[in-house]
Every structure is written in structure tokens, then in C-alpha cells.
Amino acid sequence: MTKATLGRVLGAVLIVLGTMSSAVSAPQRTPTAASARVESATFREAGTALVFVVQLSQPVRFDAIGLDGPTRAVIDLQRTATPVKKDLPAGNAFAAAVRAGPRPGGSARLVLDLAPDVRWRTLTKAGTVVDRIELELTGGTVAANSNASAAPAAITAARDPLKPVDLAHDPGKKARQVVIAVDAGHGGQDSGAIGHGGTYEKNVVLEIARRLAARIDQEPGMRAVLTRDGDYFLTLRQRIKRAREAGAMMFVSVHADSVRDPQVSGSSVYVLSEKGATDEQARWLADRENAADLMGGVSLDDKDPVLASVLVDLTQSAQIGYSMQAAERVLASLREVHEVHRPRVQQAGFVVLKSPDIPSMLVETAFISNASDERKLTDPARQGEIATAIFNGVHRYFVEHPPEGSRFALERAEARRVANAEERRKAGAL
Ligand SMILES: [Zn+2]
After folding, report:
1. How far is the centre of ligand 1, averaged over its atoms, from the C-alpha of 25 (Å)?
2. pLDDT of 211
3. In angstroms, what is the span from residue 350 Cα to ligand 1's centroid?
4. What's the average model confidence in pLDDT over 332-345?
5. 209 CA from centroid of ligand 1 (Å)
6. CATH topology assigned to domain 38-165
7. Fold of the 173-409 domain
8. 43-57, 96-110, 344-358, range with the lowest pLDDT
9. Measured in angstroms, how far is the CA atom of residue 187 from the centroid of ligand 1?
10. Which residues are CB-neighbours of 418 under 8 A, at least 6 positions away?
């Protein structure tokens, strides 16, 4: 992607609202120590609905947002210590799992992985400071015999296929697929950069993208989705949308770079810049119609502009962090097969990276404007080498950051179990 191409292609959608961003930015991001604890998190029945109740040790500000693909209800608790797994309720027919994780600034995030068709709403007003939060889930199936004990366990349907049963002993079988969106840049009337030897960026990046997707599909527990698998034009928003619809956990856009200086060569990896995020945030707020789509189904309509900007900011700044970690691994991996143009991950305002809920990176595989790089880009063996290098970086990221329920998480649990058993065996032998 050349600077000129970037301007042309992204011009229509990359809206830099300098003045507006200053008006809507500046949400508090100062790290603060956690002061509240989650005293209990439970489900209680209410007719055909199920209510998720969070009791806190003291009042904190909370927000609730929804995420799609898979459908999740998210509760963010400011200045709250992240609860450990044993303090969270087991999954049930409405919510397959309840998870928790730390957020920037000392916040805790609770995530409910909702069963299909389950709808949710907060019974406690979002954006307020409270010590008890209630979230109502409807549309699921409460077990017929549930009134007997009225305990949350009664709702937990043992036969529920969504319930994560002891998967650790059966890795690979029921694991949740780690879906990677592989995005070949350009396409159709948009050829991308053109090499001196007549190579079109759109063609070579599609070849590399296909090889990357094939490598991902070979890996148990992983699956690739190509945003385009042919020579046609897609808008940048369509690319993000396809990735989200496929439930992608990572978005990798494949490009080839070009500059006037034919000596310049090597790979670079980009993630979204904070500035790009800020501009994008301004754009979302300016364009409510697109906002719902961009936030992955998070409705901003009923939220005041300041709260909406905080929600967008929290989601996006965390994603930049995850994207950076993944991009660093891809860059390190590319360095093993190809020289790198820039030794560090670069940050820019590429629209295609602006997915607030999917870690995203853009790989400039090589310089199509450099004769040697251009030959590499058209050589099937080198295309495969580059694709494998990108795969290795992405794979390493998921080994180190295993998504819950994925093969990576199950294998890690299994490795721990084996190690513990070995420890005990050794201890017993002494
Ligand atoms: Zn490009």
C-alpha cells in the first residue's frame, strides 16, 4: 500500500476529525488501584428469565456493553479487583460461561458468553455508581425441574451442548475454533501498488493470503476466513464486517509496500495508532448509523456522548494492546525469513485495522517497488515462506494468550495437569 494509494483508497472512509476528536476524547485513563471486590456473582431465576447478580464490596461505576460473534454481554467495573474463576458461577443454558479479566486502569471485566437467541438487558442503570448489578437474560430455556432446588445449579443443564464440560481430557474435539480473518488487500479495480516488473499488489497478496489461510486450516483448533478469495473489490468496512460475521478472533491484512526509492526493501507490520483510534472514535460518534456496526453490535444510541466515547475508548485501547503483542510476534517471525524494513511494529490510522473488538494488524510483506522483493513476492516458494512466518507469529500469540475454551487453553490445562501429576508422583516416590 503506497502513501498515494492509501490516500486514494482510504480517503473516502478515513475521516480525520481533528477538531471533533478533541471535543469527544479525553476520557480518564489514569491507572488507579482497585478498591472494590466482587463479593458474589450468581444467577437467580425470575420466571422464565435468569438474572445475573453481581454484589460488590463497595459502590463503583459500571458499564454494560454487548459484543457479537460470539454473542457476549460485558460488564465493566471501575476500580475493582478481577474475581478469580472459582468465585464465578458455572455456565448454564443461558450463558455458556462466565469469565473475568482485568482491564486498563484497574477495572475488571465480566463476560457472559450467551447462548444463541438469548437477549439481555441491565436491570441496574448502566453508567451509574452502584454496589449491586443485575442483568436479565431472556430467551433461553430454564430446566423443567428447576423449581425443585431453585439453586443456580438447577438451571445448569447437564445436557446443554454449550456447557463447557471437562474438555481438558479430550483436547481438540470440542474445542472452540480460533478463527482468523485473512484479508488480502485491494482487489478488482483497486490494483494496489504495481512493481516495475508489472506485478500487481492485489494478485500477490491474494496468493500469500490463500497460503496463510491454508496453513491456518491445517492447524487443529484453528480456522481461517478469507475476506476475499478472488479478484474483486471490497470496501474496508466490508472487510471488517466479514471478519466479524465469521467470529474472527484476529484480523490480518496482507499487503505489499511501495515507495519511490527502489532500494528500499523488507517487511513491516502495522497496528492501529492511538491517534487513529481517537479519530475513529470521533467518526463513530459523528456517524451513529455506522456506530452500531463498528462496535460489533454495541448500541450507542441510548448512551450519552461522553459515555459512548468512554466505551469506544476502553474497547479500542485494549485491542491496540493485544494487536501490538500479536504484531510483535509476527514481525519477529518474519525476521527469520526476510529482512525487516522497520525493526519495530509501526502504528498508523489504517481504517482496515479499526475493529474495536478484534485484534488487528496489517502486514506489508515486502516492497513491490524493489526488484529483489518483487521477485520474492511472485515466487510461490517465497510466498509460502512469508505465509508460514505470519502463521507462526499468530500461532505463538494464541499459545501465549489462549482464548477460553480453545484448543490452546485445553492444551495448556492438560500440560498443567500432567505436570502436577508428575510432581505428585515424584513427591510420593521420595
Ligand atoms: Zn496495499
Report:
1. 30
2. 97
3. 11
4. 89
5. 13
6. Immunoglobulin-like (2.60.40)
7. Aminopeptidase (3.40.630)
8. 344-358
9. 10
10. none
